[in-house]
Amino acid sequence: MSARSKARKRALDILYQSDVRGDELAVTLAAEAKRAAAEPAREASWLYAREIVDGVIDSADEIDEQIVTHARDWKLERMPAVDRAILRIGVWELLHNDEVPTAVAIDEAVELAKEFSTDDSGSFVHGVLARIARAG
Question: For residues 12 and 27, what is the distance between their CA atoms, to the nearest angstrom?
Fold first, then answer.
């Protein structure tokens, strides 16, 4: 697994944990930063995970608006928490990280959904992100 794939998984953990616990994302990120300082071997994945989470924090309203607009009759609060987190990562990469090709951002998000969410989540995540990519 590439360092970026590990970083996406790590960002997913942070976003999901914050959402489920109802904590501020910045608080969860700070706690993870403290843990990361003790794990220098995982620094490469930590740096990109932090970039993702900081990006999601900075663009939260825009990202959530894109998800709601393109989710077709799905309210954000009705989505499984893991799908919300995956979509936020994918949308941030699509809209704010020019280093990640569109197909890679979508494929990575779909793989996370297949691994960590429901049987239907992979196709749902793919559909939402593909519509956002086409609209962008």
Answer: 15
Sign of CA dihedral 84, 132, 111, 29: negative
Residue-wise DSSP of 40-77: GGGHHHHHHHHHHHHHHHHTHHHHHHHHHHHSSS--GG
Count of other CB atoms within 10 angstroms of residue 72:
10
Is 94:82 a contact under the CB 8 Å cutoff? no
Q: What is this structure's pTM?
A: 0.95
- If one counts every other C-beta atom within 10 angstroms of the C-beta of residue 64, the result is 16
- Cα(92)–Cα(78) distance, rounded to whole angstroms? 21
Task: Write the pLDDT tens digit of every residue in 13-31.
Answer: 999 999 999 999 999 999 9
